[in-house]
Amino acid sequence: MVITEKPTAAKRIAHALDENKSPTEVKKRGASYYECKRENDDLVVVYALGHLFELKQTVKGWTYPRMETSWVPRYEVEKKATQIKPIINLIKKLAKDVDSFVVATDYDIEGSLIGYLTLKHACNADPEQAHRMFFSTLTDSEIQSAYDNMAGSLNFPMIAAGQVRHEIDWLYGINLTRALTLAVKNTAGWFKIVSTGRVQGPTLSFVAEREQQINLFVPNPFWVIHAKTMHNNIEIELEYSKKRIETRNESDSIVGDLDGQTAHVDSINKKISTQQPHPPFNLSTLQSEAYRHFGFKPSRTLAIAQSLYLDAVISYPRTSSEKLPETIDLKKIISGLGKMKSYAGMTKQVLQKGNLTPVQGKKSDPAHPAIHPTGSKPTKRLTPSENKLYDLIVRRFLALFCEPAEKEHLRADIKHEEHLLYLRGLRILKQGWMEFYGPYSKTNERELPDISEGDSLLLSPVSDEERYTQPPARFNPASLLKLLEQENLGTKATRARIVDSIKSRGYTMNDRFELSTLGYALFETLGKYMPNILSPELTRFLESEMEEIQQEKKDRESVLTEAKSNLLELLEDFKSQESEIGNELVTGLQRYWQSKEELGECPKCQEGTLRVIRSSKTGKRFVGCSNYSEGNCDQTFPLPQKGDITPLDTVCPHCGYIMFQVTSGRRKWETCINWTECLGRKDELKALEERRNKQDKKTEGEEK
Amino acid sequence: MTFCKICGRTVVKGSVLCQYHQSALDSLHTSYEAWKKASGVSWKEYIEKLCQLEETGRWVFDVAEQLKSGDDLSAPS
Q1: Closest Cβ–Cβ partner in A212, A221, A591 for B38
Q2: CA-closest candidate to residue A140, choices A56, A20, A270, A226
Q3: Quick one: what percent of chain A has pLDDT higher than 70?
Q4: Which of A167, A212, A577, A695 has the lowest CB atom count within 10 Å?
Q5: What is the three-class DSSP state of A550?
C-alpha cells in the first residue's frame, strides 16, 4: 500500500509507478484507490485528504484547562469533514490484505505526520515496519526513482516534532481561546469567540504596535527644492544635492540664491555597476514577489503553487531553500521548457551558452530544493492565476543561468557658488538576466541630455515645496509574513494561515491590516494581564524546542510536559483575574460593535441611535432607530444587501445624512443612508439598477 | 474623572486622558519645538495645521481637535 497525501498526488503516483501507465481507479462508497503493477509488486495507492486524524480532548466539557488529548478521525472534531469517513473505512479495509506499507506523502513535518497517523490509526500497522519515498517533484522519473530507492524507515524525529507542534498549538489555542471567551460570557452573558494562539498572539502584537506608531505619528515639515533649466530647447529638471531642507529660512535662501542665476556643468561622472540574477525562489520569496506583481495574498500563492506541484509542473513549494543541488538534471528541465512556445527562445539561448551553473541563494532546506519548474508540460489548461505564477517561476529559473546585468549610472554635477545640483541618467548596457526576467524587473532608463563639462545653464524657475514626513506603512499580507519569518514564528506551512486569521477574526480591517477596535481590546487586555501571550519570546522558545526534537536533542514527552506546566501556570493566573479581563474585553466588544453597527443620531426623533438591524422575518438588513422597540420612532432606511457595511464619520454633501462604506469583494464605494431618496445620488441608483438588470439577464441565460 | 475625555478609555494617573491620548499629547508638545525651529509657526497655527494633514496620527488628531476647540486637557489640580 502506497499512502499519499491527496487524490491528485495518488493519481500521479499510481500513473508513474504502473508499468503500463494505466492504473485502475477503483471507486467504493464515496472514496477510491488505484491499483497498479510494478515488476513483482501489486500496489494499491490510497490517499488522505490532508490530515485524516485530529486532536480531541479526552475529558468532556467546553471549559479550561483541558490538557489531555488523543488522535481521533477528523469527522469527530469537524462536522463538515464528511468525506473523511469513507476514506478511513476504505484504507482500513484494504490494509487488512497488505503485506508492506510505503509512505509517499510530502516530505515535510506535516506530510510525515499524515503518513504516520494514517498508518497507525487507519491501517492499524506498525510504523516501524513502513518504508518512505522521498521526492520533490511529482514527475514520473522522480516518483519511479523514489520508489526504487525508498528508505527502510520513516523519519521518526520529524514525526515527533510534527506531533508535538499539533499538541502544543492545540493546548495553547483551545485553552486560551476558551479562557478569553468564557471571561466575556461570565461577565456579560454573551457568547462571542475571542481567539488567540501561540503564534496568533505575537502576530496581533506586531500589527498593534505598528498601529500605535501610526496613531501617535506627528508629521514634521521639510522642504524640497525644484530647479529647472532649458538646454537645446529641452526643459530639464535638476535635483538639488540636499534632498531635504530642514527649515523654511534655509529653503527660502536657497531659492533666492539660485533663481534666475547661471550655473555651470562642473563634471560628468560615470559609474558602471553589475547586478547578479536573483536567487531561486523559496516559498517566502515567491509569496512576496507574487504579492508585488499580481497582488496575490500569501495563502493564495501557496494554494496556486500547490496546484502547480500536483500537476507536476513545479517542484514542492513548501521549502526554505534557495539552492538547486547538482543532483537535479537542469539540462533536462531546460530542454523540457523549450518545448513550450513561450520559453523556446530563452531556453535555446541558455543551452547554446552551455553554462548550466545556476546562481544560488544562501538559505538551504534539508528536505527540498528551491522552487523550480520540472520541465513537464501542464496536463491541464492552467487558470490565469496559475499561468501568472508559473511564468514567474520559469523566468526566475531561466534567469539563473544568465550573465549579470550591466548598468551605467551617469551624474552631472552642476554648480552655482556653494550650491550643487545633479542631473542623473541611467542606461542599461547589458540586459543579461533581465532579458528573461524582464516583466518582473523593470528599470527606468533615463538618458542624460547632451551636455558637456563647462556648459552654462540658466536656472529658472527655482522654487521650493513644503512636504511632511510620513508615518510608518501598515503591514500588507506579504510584509507581515516576512516579519513572521524573520522572527522565526510559525512555519512556512502555517504562516499564511495565521496572517489570514488575524483578519478573519475581525482583529484587523481592510487589506492593509488596520487594527479594529476589537483587535485593540484584545491587544490591550492581553498586554495588561497576560503579556507572555503577546510576546514572541514564548513562542520562539517553543519553536526552538520543537526543532531540537527534530534534531534528536530533546524528546517529545519532556517538551510536552514542560509546555503543559507553563500553560497551567498561565491559566491559573488568568482565572484569578477573569472578571477584570472580562470587563475590559466586554468594553472593547461594545466599542467594536458600535463602530460596526451604529450610524449616529436618528434624524427623526433626534434621541435614538441609528443601527444596522437584520429583520428576523426576512433576514434582510436595514437601518432602524434604537427607539423603535419603545414605540417612539419608526425611522428606517434601506441598505444594500450585499457586502460589508462600515459607518463613516462624514455626512452626504447632497442631503446631509450620514455616510457609510460598502465593501463587496474588491469593490468599495461610499454612499449615504438616504441613498434611495437622495437627489444627488440618482445616477448612482440608475447605475445600480443597470448592473442588477444585467446580472438578472445573465442568470436567466445561465438557467436556460 | 476616570474616563478619557476623548475616547472613554480609563485615564492614566494625573491626567484627563487615556494612555494613548496622553502619549499623543506628549508627542504633540515634543514635536512643536521641531516645528517652531523649522517654520516659526505659533502653537495655534501648529495645531491647526496638524488637524489638516492626513499624515497626522489618529490619536494626535483627536488631541489636536480637542485643543483647537479650546478644551483644557490639563489634569484638574
Answers
A1: A221
A2: A20
A3: 98
A4: A695
A5: helix
Lowest model confidence (mean pLDDT) among A148-162, A170-184, A470-484, A657-671: A657-671
Tens of pLDDT, residue by residue over A287-304, are 999 999 998 988 899 999
Place of cell 489618529: B58
What is the rounded CA–CA span in Å between residue A318 and residue A299?
12
Would an 8 Å CB–CB cutoff place B42 in contact with chain A? no
Give the three-state DSSP class for A189: coil
**In whole angstroms, what is the distance from residue A452 CA to residue A385 CA?**
50
User: In this model, does residue A672 exceed pLDDT 50?
Assistant: yes
- Residue A271, class by beta-carbon neighbours within 10 Å (0-12 exposed, 13-18 middle, 19+ buried)? exposed
| Confidence tier at B77 by pLDDT (50, 70, 90) | very low
Q: Going by DSSP bridges, is the β-strand pair A609-614/A456-468 parallel, antiparallel, or unpaired?
A: unpaired
Nearest to B55 among A212, A222, A471 (CB): A471
- The residues of A that are catalytic are 316
- For residues A555 and A545, what is the distance between their CA atoms, to the nearest angstrom? 9
Using an 8 Å Cβ cutoff, are A441 and A419 in contact? no
Cβ <8 Å between B60 and A221: no
Residue A54 in contact with residue A78, Cβ under 8 Å? yes
What ipTM is given for this predicted complex? 0.96
For A312-381, what is the HEC assignment?
CCECCCCCCCCCCCCCCCHHHHHHHHHCCHHHHHHHHHHHHHCCCCCCCCCCCCCCCCCECECCCCCCCC
Amino acid at position B20, single letter: Y
Distance from C-alpha of A419 to C-alpha of A253, rounded to nearest angstrom: 11
Query: Using an 8 Å Cβ cutoff, are A51 and A114 in contact?
Result: yes
pLDDT digits (tens, 9 = 90+) for A310-365: 999 999 999 989 999 888 999 999 999 999 999 999 999 999 988 789 999 999 88
CA nearest to B37 within chain A: A247
Asked if the Cβ–Cβ distance from B53 to A468 is below 8 Å, we say yes
Report yes or no: B22 at the A interface, CB cutoff 8 Å: no
Q: Does B35 touch chain A (CB under 8 A)?
A: yes
A-chain residues within 8 Å CB-CB of B57? 214-218, 471
Contacts A–B by Cβ distance under 8 A: 55
pTM above 0.90, yes or no: no
For residue A522, give every residue at least 6 positions away whose Cβ sits within 8 Å of its Cβ, in sequence order, or none: A180, A194, A196, A204, A507, A585, A588
